[in-house]
Automatic annotation (TrEMBL):
Name of the molecule in the record: Carbohydrate ABC transporter permease
Classification lineage: Bacteria, Bacillati, Actinomycetota, Actinomycetes, Micrococcales
Family recorded in the similarity comment: Belongs to the binding-protein-dependent transport system permease family.
Organism of this sequence: Microbacterium horticulturae
Main location: membrane
SUPFAM superfamilies: MetI-like (SSF161098)
Superkingdom field: Bacteria
Biased composition (Polar residues): 1-16
UniProt membrane topology term: Multi-pass membrane protein
Length: 298
């Protein structure tokens, strides 16, 4: 009876006026839009300031009055960042080390996540908890043990050593992420393939692998960002400056007891960020698809 009365009161309204609930929806949307715009400006402004500062001459950078638009735009900061440093050499080092590490990490994570999601064996839950625990450990806590182990193995100041360190850093997240994509695939798909006579390897490569490609792409971009921005391992394990990666190169613009070239530093930051931005723009469609697919089941 009370439900009928409330429905009647909601329908019977003065002519030309909308119910109170409907009138409040546009206000909520407007408020949410304003809040989203405020947070967007807060997050975007540092990036905007970095970009415009990279195009300013030193006199405009050091002026006490902020200039939100470059009055005398110049490319000299980019020219100096590239020509007067080992940018191209360090860029090559980063590309070789990061891409190799991501390929190996994804390959290992593909088999590990498939086993953890499809097979039932003793200690499976313990392994998953350990992977999650390792992912939660700070990288600085593992730095000294890694350094000692790599020193005993003779892997310091070698690409293979840094690649293995990056694989170890990216692997826990990759396994945990890809496992979610495998779990989201119905088991009936595999059962139907088994009925047709497909073996384990055939099911993995011909059925499961194509279905988790969006997950591989989304996992790879997060792993790439982690390895691309890594500084401590590259600075600690590599003693030869010609083997430094781009994060170490970027840190070289802030030398203690010397004036900082802020324009050059901002130009270097833009150059450092471009590969990640370009890669993200290329695979953003697959990234959204992969994130939504992996969120179906945990």
């Amino acid at each position: 009876m009370s439900a009928t009365v409330s429905e009647t009161q909601a329908v019977v309204t003065p002519s030309g006026t909308a119910p109170v609930g409907r009138r409040s929806r546009p206000r909520r949307r407007t408020g949410a839009t304003i809040v989203a715009l405020v947070f967007s400006v807060i997050w975007i402004f540092p990036v905007y300031w970095m970009v415009i500062t990279s195009f300013k001459p030193r006199a405009d950078v050091m002026t006490p009055d902020p200039q939100f638009i470059p009055l005398h735009p110049t490319m000299v900061n980019f020219v100096n960042a590239v020509s007067k440093t080992d940018f191209l050499l360090n860029l090559r080092n980063s590309v070789v080390v990061v891409f190799t590490a991501i390929v190996f990490a994804l390959l290992i994570a593909l088999f590990a996540s498939a086993a953890l999601s499809r097979f039932r064996f003793k200690g499976r839950r313990t392994i998953m908890v350990m992977i999650l625990a390792v992912q939660m450990l700070p990288g600085a806590a593992l730095l000294i043990p890694q350094f000692l182990i790599f020193n005993d193995l003779g892997l310091l100041n070698k690409y293979i050593g840094l690649i293995l360190a990056y694989v170890a850093a990216v692997l826990p997240f990759s396994i945990w992420s890809l496992r979610g994509f495998f779990v989201s695939i119905p088991v009936e798909v595999e059962e139907a393939a088994m009925v047709d006579g497909a073996g384990t390897w055939s099911i993995l490569w011909r059925i499961l692998f194509p279905l988790v490609v969006p997950g591989l792409i989304s996992t790879s971009i997060f792993g790439f960002i982690t390895a691309w921005n890594e500084y401590i391992l590259a600075f600690t394990f590599m003693k030869d400056t010609t083997m430094y990666t781009l994060p170490v190169w970027l840190a070289g613009f802030a030398i203690p007891n010397q004036p900082v070239d802020y324009g050059g530093q901002m130009a270097a930051s833009v150059l450092f960020s471009l590969p990640v931005v370009v890669l993200f723009l290329i695979i953003q469609r697959h990234l959204v698809t992969g994130m939504s697919a992996g969120a179906v089941k945990g």
